[in-house]
Amino acid sequence: MSANQDGANLLEVRGLTKIFGTLTACDHIDLDVAKGEIHALLGENGAGKSTLVKMLFGTLEPNSGEILWNGQAVTITSPGFAKKLGIGMVFQHFSLFEALTAAENIALSLDDGSPISTIAAKARALSYSYGLPLDPQSLVGDLSVGERQRIEIIRCLLQTPQLIILDEPTSVLTPQEADKLFETLERLRSEGKSILYISHRLEEVKRICDRATVLRHGKVVGHCNPREETAASLARMMVGNDVQAVVRAPARGIETAQPLLEIRALSRKPATPFSIPLRNINLTVRAGEVIGIAGVAGNGQGEFFESVSGEVPQQDAASVRIRGKDAGGLGITGRRLMGAAFVPEERLGHGAAPRMKLSENLLLSRHATDGKVFVGAGGMVKSDAIYAASQRIIEAMDVRKSAPDPEAAALSGGNLQKFIVGRELDRRPDVMVVNQPTWGVDAGAAAHIRQTLIGLARSGSAVLVISQDLDELFEISDAIAVMHNGVLSKPLPIAEATFEKVGLLMGGAEPGHVEHVLETS
Amino acid sequence: MDITVNILLTIATAATPLLIAAIGELVVERSGVLNLGVEGMMIMGAVGGFGAGYLTGSPWIGLLAAIALGAVFSLLFAVMTLSLATNQVATGLSLTLLGLGLSGMMGTSFVGQPGARLPNLDIPGLTAIPVVGRLLFGQDPIFYISIALTAAVMWFLFKTRTGLTLRSIGDSHTSAHALGIHVIRYRYLAVIFGGACAGLAGGHLSLVYTPQWVENMTAGRGWIALALVVFASWRPWRVLAGAYIFGAVWIGQLHAQAFGIPVPSQLLSSLPYLATIVVLVLISRNKRLTMMNTPASLGQPFVPDR
Predict the structure, then answer these.
(1) Which of A115, A370, A414, B182 gives a 20 to 30 Å CA spacing to A295?
(2) Is A99 on the interface with B (CB under 8 A)?
């Protein structure tokens, strides 16, 4: 059950350092992984976790420090060499080929040269023995994110590694899929394999990990036994100070409030062969409430956001109504002019133009809605007014930056996200639609953004939040709807919503069926 | 009957250089590299093939020289785009311009000289069979190479592990790198193979099609080959079909012009392009298949972070 503490260390890392330009991503990292243990690597986004494991897997070269494998100093020069040593990796951003089948994807990482059909048979057998059923002939582009992760895991296991590195494996799974994964990991540990488990989810680390190493700003700030810690004490180690809890005042009189955003029988054909069609989506967001949309990535949330924001206008003008008026035929600027605001998922290249200054990015999104303030006679841009407005947003959202008006790409992900959310909030929009508001944002900034969204709703706006982070949705939403395979469930009022219910809906169970399962179990 | 056979033979001769250049480029693009220098590599093959054949008197040496020159010329592109990560479009275009200029300079003394011609196949007994004899056993050697090459590339890409690896690099070079595949090494080999094919296609022009050296004698065939690869959605047999449709309509419109059909000659000359595009677009209607065969990382420079 617990780690084999007296056994020799499989992996020892001593003083590993990686410097990118002026940033020290990893600063003299020490880490031991014993045989047969699940070792957690904890840290916020940008703490250096991914950089560290990339060095362990040979895709990055350390500037200094050494790696010992079974007590022997090794220089891991390539992923191929790491695999030969016995290190397997399950990536956070999958390293799969969409246009190839599952079996072909697996074959590519094996060097034994056996025919694809043999590999497919092996993969199928292994996947069933671990309870991760997989059809080797299916095309990766057609698979859900959870199924793709199975391919990554099976591919890793087929190489019979001694150490398996998993990078944020549950961020794309439903709670039930995550449970399945934990069973698999516990079985692997009982078979004597070591696992390096990277996460910022404290509950799951407490649940399955034997030891933890905590990173902050590229440095090791502590080793601990997560079972003896509380979630709060782990969070304090990770963040460095206490994180303010988000407060959600109860919403009152929502049932009678004015519907500000209405979606009526919204359908959309798949844009590309690998994308999801939207099927008859109905949703009402009223003044004063926050509605959350949960779902595993790739179930149509992106397509839904594009349709609601007007990046892709609809045929049926009545399918999206803003403040009681049809908006389905309008583009994004038309919908903004009706009082709506949108924050897309991707910050760089979608939410902001990376090589343009923050003030220029402000003008880009608000040139129409704030035309009188920002643009003068003859279409001349009023730089002073824009600069002043951007500084106001920076102050309101506590955006940390190195120059008065830096390029968007120069900001860290969390700070840029604060600016992009603040840019829309500054307009006091009646309708706010946000896709993944705090993805990759550190805990402090995330709490700030969530609190601001609740505040906006309570001041009389309708807020719609699409997120993969269930904790976040439970924290801020008044009701949660689940998107699965392009279909949106009825919103569950937060008082009735549980992780279990939402998780079943995320996995594709029918709403009626969920009630049934929960009653009989 | 003889006229039909002659027309079919000229169609094959017109299609062969397109097919070879396009099959080479198909392999390059399947690895995720867009080499717009096909025209330049082809003309280098043409001048090299003619020169070596003319100077040694042996068309076979000319053929080898054409292949070698195309490959060496593509190596220039490979070093620039793969090792130095320059923009592939700009580098490819300049390769074409450089090839056209350089070949003109190299070929000044060859203009108007009679060249060596590769002999047609002649198998006693078989070639003499009426109709099919000349079509199957009486064509130039490069024709047979082009057909064998298409079959070999098809087999390589879809039946071998190395071919699978090459396609995976074209789909996502970052994923391939993460698996420990040598992205740059594969791409070098693919680009050089494409160069050798383009050189061979150029050699066909100056050693078979019109055994002489004329400046700019490729006359845009490299560009047609490039277009064929895209319109054939990166599938070898469709490239073959496209090359032969183009060749057939090309020869057809030449005959139509000779007959004096009252249609503006400019319109007739544009027919092969139009017909090829229409046919290939029609057979590529299946969006899903097209997506599966499109190399997603095409044209993106790959720089592994270190």
Answers:
(1) A414
(2) yes
Please indicate, yes or no, if residue B192 is contained in any of the structural domains: yes
Task: Write down the ipTM of this complex.
Answer: 0.80
Tokens 């990759």 found at? A440
Q: Which two tokens stand for residue A357?
A: 């200054």
Q: Do A61 and B306 touch (CB under 8 A)?
A: yes
Distance CA A518, CA A511 (A): 11
Name the DSSP class of A86: T
Q: What pLDDT was estimated at residue A517?
A: 53
Domain count along chain B: 1
Residues A153-181 have a mean pLDDT of 85
Q: What are phi and psi of B38, to 5 degrees?
A: -55, -45
Which residues neighbour B59 within 8 Å (Cβ) at sequence distance 6 or greater?
A: B53, B116, B117, B118, B119, B207, B211
User: Would strands A211-216 and A64-69 be described as parallel, antiparallel, or unpaired?
Assistant: unpaired
Mean pLDDT of A451-470: 93
B51 found inside a domain = yes
Q: Is A217 left (phi over 0), alpha (psi -120 to 50) or beta?
A: left
Interface residues from chain B to A (CB-CB < 8 Å): 161, 164-165, 167-168, 171-172, 174-181, 287-288, 291-294, 296, 304-306
β partners of residue A293:
A466, A481
**Structural domains present in chain A:** 1-86+162-172+188-241 (3.40.50.300), 95-160 (no CATH), 254-520 (3.40.50.300)
Residue A513 has what pLDDT? 54
Burial class (CB in 10 A: 0-12, 13-18, 19+), B279: middle
Q: Quick check: A107 contacting B, CB < 8 Å?
A: yes
The pLDDT, as a whole number, for residue A3 is 42
A98/B293 CB distance under 8 A? no
Domain that holds residue B27: 2-293
Cα–Cα distance, A374 to A395 (Å, whole number)? 19
8 Å CB contact of A79 and B178: yes
From first to last of the 306 residues of chain B, give the pLDDT tens digit. 678 888 899 999 999 999 999 999 999 999 999 999 999 999 999 999 999 999 999 999 999 999 999 999 999 999 999 999 999 999 999 999 999 999 999 999 999 888 888 888 888 888 888 778 888 888 899 999 999 999 999 999 999 999 999 999 999 998 898 888 899 999 999 999 999 999 999 999 999 998 999 999 998 999 999 999 988 889 999 999 999 999 999 999 988 888 888 888 888 888 888 888 888 788 777 777 777 888 989 998 898 766
Between the alpha carbon of residue B292 and those of residues A140, B171, B210, B281, the distances in Å are 10, 9, 39, 16
- Those residues whose C-beta lies under 8 Å from the C-beta of residue A132, and which sit 6 or more positions away, are A150, A153, A154, A180, A184
**Least Cα separation, residue B300 to chain A (angstroms):** 16
Q: Which residues, 6 or more positions from A269, have their beta carbon under 8 angstroms from its beta carbon? A: A277
Compute CA A151 distance to the chain's CA centroid, rounded to the nearest angstrom: 20
CA-CA-CA-CA torsion sign (A154, A158, A160, A163): negative
Is B304 inside a domain boundary?
Answer: no
Q: Is B287 close to A272, i.e. CB distance below 8 A?
A: yes
pLDDT at position A465, please?
A: 97
A99/B294 touch (CB, cutoff 8 Å), yes or no: yes
Residue B59 neighbours by CB distance under 10 Å = 24
Q: Which tokens belong to B254?
A: 């030449």
Residue B173 belongs to domain with CATH number: 1.10.3470
Query: How many other C-beta atoms lie within 10 A of the C-beta of residue A501?
Result: 20
